């Protein structure tokens, strides 16, 4: 729903926007805002349970909690602490879900499958054009599709509910990639000739610097390009 109500088309339909610009910079700015909200989160949403599961498997012990935490932060986000950290610190505890033993992978999953739902509802509504411009507002067909799925409640396994609205039972990142394709193309063009990367691991001991040489692009832009490129296998 939020992917629809945030579109310029929807804002114009309810009188909050006077006109819709087709200027490329306008589109890129809109998609960048969406990416900062929905894409920049994905590496973090992925690594939380990577840490928890490594503890459950016995691979990560109390002696190396912090080391493992920053290895994951470096590998998936390109981030390292501003000051040296050691075994006496417990930085993972700053995220509530870890000390409370609350699973976190569901947030990562939800950020991906929302685009599957959005695409399916857009198709039912008869939308023609780029996915990021779709607004299902006032579509009775899309509303019925969503209502029928929600009516299942907990009476059916979640793959049944997903199949009812998308026609498939598995998580698929293709709609997410399609939604952000114009921004991905723009980032590839802007980053041409630059080394947009970071080291996979923090240096041992101090964990003080896991970052490689980045281009002039912001960290958010790098996250979008790197994460989509490597996790969803588009280059």
TrEMBL record:
This protein's cofactor list reads: Zn(2+)
Note on cofactor: Binds 1 zinc ion per subunit.
Q: Kindly indicate whether the keyword tRNA processing belongs to this entry.
A: no
Any coiled-coil regions, as ranges: none
The positions annotated for binding chloride are: 106
Q: Which UniProt keywords apply?
A: Carboxypeptidase, Disulfide bond, Glycoprotein, Hydrolase, Membrane, Metal-binding, Metalloprotease, Protease, Signal, Transmembrane, Transmembrane helix, Zinc
InterPro entries given in the database record: Peptidase_M2
The protein's enzyme class? hydrolase
Q: Which GO terms describe its cellular component?
A: plasma membrane
Q: Report the EC code(s) recorded for this entry.
A: 3.4.-.-
Q: Name one GO molecular function term.
A: metallopeptidase activity
Disulfide-bonded cysteine pairs: these are: 122-134
Q: Which GO terms describe its biological process?
A: proteolysis
Signal sequence span per UniProt?
none
**For this UniProt entry, which segments traverse the membrane?**
214-232
One matching Pfam family, short form? Peptidase_M2
Return the similarity comment.
Answer: Belongs to the peptidase M2 family.
Q: What is the official name of this protein in its record?
A: Angiotensin-converting enzyme
The scientific name of the source species is: Paralvinella palmiformis
């Amino acid at each position: 729903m939020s992917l629809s109500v945030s579109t310029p088309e929807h804002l114009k339909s309810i009188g909050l926007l006077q006109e819709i610009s087709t200027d490329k910079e306008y589109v890129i700015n809109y998609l960048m805002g969406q990416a900062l909200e929905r894409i920049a989160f994905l590496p973090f949403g992925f690594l939380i349970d990577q840490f928890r599961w490594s503890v459950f498997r016995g691979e990560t012990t109390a002696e190396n909690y912090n080391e493992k935490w920053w290895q994951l932060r470096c590998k998936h986000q390109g981030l390292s602490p501003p000051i040296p950290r050691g075994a006496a610190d417990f930085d993972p505890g700053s995220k509530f879900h870890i000390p409370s033993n609350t699973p976190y992978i569901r947030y990562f999953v939800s950020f991906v499958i929302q685009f599957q739902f959005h695409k399916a509802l857009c198709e039912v509504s008869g939308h023609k054009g780029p996915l990021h411009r779709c607004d299902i507002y006032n579509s009775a067909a899309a509303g019925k599709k969503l209502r029928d799925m929600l009516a299942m409640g907990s009476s059916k396994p979640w793959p049944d509910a997903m199949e009812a609205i998308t026609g498939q039972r598995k998580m698929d990142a293709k709609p997410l990639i399609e939604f952000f394709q114009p921004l991905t193309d723009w980032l590839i063009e802007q980053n041409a000739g630059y080394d947009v990367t970071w080291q996979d691991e923090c240096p041992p001991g101090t964990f003080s610097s896991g970052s490689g040489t980045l281009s002039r692009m912001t960290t958010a832009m790098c996250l979008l390009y790197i994460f989509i490129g490597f996790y969803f296998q588009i280059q």
